Amino acid sequence: MRKAFALPTVAIAAAAFPLLSISAASAHEGAHSYQADLGAVNQSGVEGTGMVTLDGNTATVMIEASGLLAGSPHAQHFHIGALGECPTNDLADDADGDGFVSVTEAAKYYGMIGSSLTTTGDTSPDSGLSIDRFPTADDGTISYERTFEVTDDVHAAFEAGTAVLVVHGVDKDGSGAYDGDVMSDLDPSLPMEATAPAVCGALEVAQMGAMPAGGAETGAGSTAGTENTAAIGVGVLAAAGAAGAGAIAYRRRQAEQA
Predict the structure, then answer these.
(1) Domain segments of the chain: what residues?
(2) Which residues of 99-136 are buried (b: 16+ CB within 10 A; e: fewer)?
(3) Whole-angstrom Cα distance, residue 142 to residue 77?
(4) Taking the complete model, does pTM exceed 0.85, yes or no?
């Protein structure tokens, strides 16, 4: 009789496992929103905000920035793979003393390009300097919105809290154009003013988003709450096992009394 009674217990336990796996999977579904308060770099005086909604690997990006060099294009990117921070605005990070915090000098904070926030076409790091496809600040402001696909490593950076939004291009000498004797560390054919970061902000879980408490600091918003779901699943499993064991004991007693 033992083998016959053991089968229902296994069946009950097996039925409990899908509940656990389905609940854990559903914790990763749905859209999540992130925001960046953009602060000036290179004493640019630029300010702004950025909002990103990620639904799987589909990103909808909105950027509003003001105080930029009017009539000039401004490269903008998601940067990933470093500390998820921005350089200071007081040139403390100007290691070579050329008067600019360059992209190279800022990379220790915000990392490499993950996505190029172009207006059309490719959004990969390969388009990082495609100036003709970045927004132009016609009146010194940018109002940008686009939906596109990001790569898995960019999505992972958002979840880990290490994604940073950077807009480039400063008018350091106030001439009204990208010029000067200091050349870009990214492209020696361009003046440093064209590529130096102007404004930067770490992308954090939006305060009005549907994230559980604690997601903004840990970057684990898409999985927060899984622990409780798992505990419930384990509890169901334990209860199912106990019910099966009780049924076996009862039937044994019935057999002995017969």
Answers:
(1) 2-27+225-257, 31-218
(2) ebbbbebbbebbbebbbbbbeeeebebebbbbbebbbb
(3) 14
(4) no
Phi and psi (nearest 5°) for 115?
-145, 140
State whether residue 39 is helix, strand or coil.
strand
Give the domain 31-218 fold. Answer: Immunoglobulin-like (2.60.40)
Report which secondary-structure segment, H or E, holds 51. strand 47-55
Give, in degrees to the nearest 5, the angle at Cα 151 between 148 and 154. 100
Output phi, psi for 239, to 5 deg. -65, -40
Q: What are the tens digits of pLDDT across the range 49-102? A: 999 999 999 999 999 999 999 999 999 999 999 999 999 888 999 999 999 999
Q: Which amino acid is at 199?
A: V
User: Under DSSP, is residue 252 helix (H, G, I), strand (E, B) or coil?
Assistant: helix
Angle of the 226-257 helix axis to the 2-26 helix axis, nearest 10: 170
Task: Return the closest-CA partner of residue 126 out of 71, 61, 75.
Answer: 75
The rounded distance, in Å, linking the Cα atoms of 85 and 90 is 15
> How far is the C-alpha of 73 from the C-alpha of 136, rounded, in Å?
4
Question: How far apart, in Å, do the first and last CA atoms of the chain sit?
Answer: 14
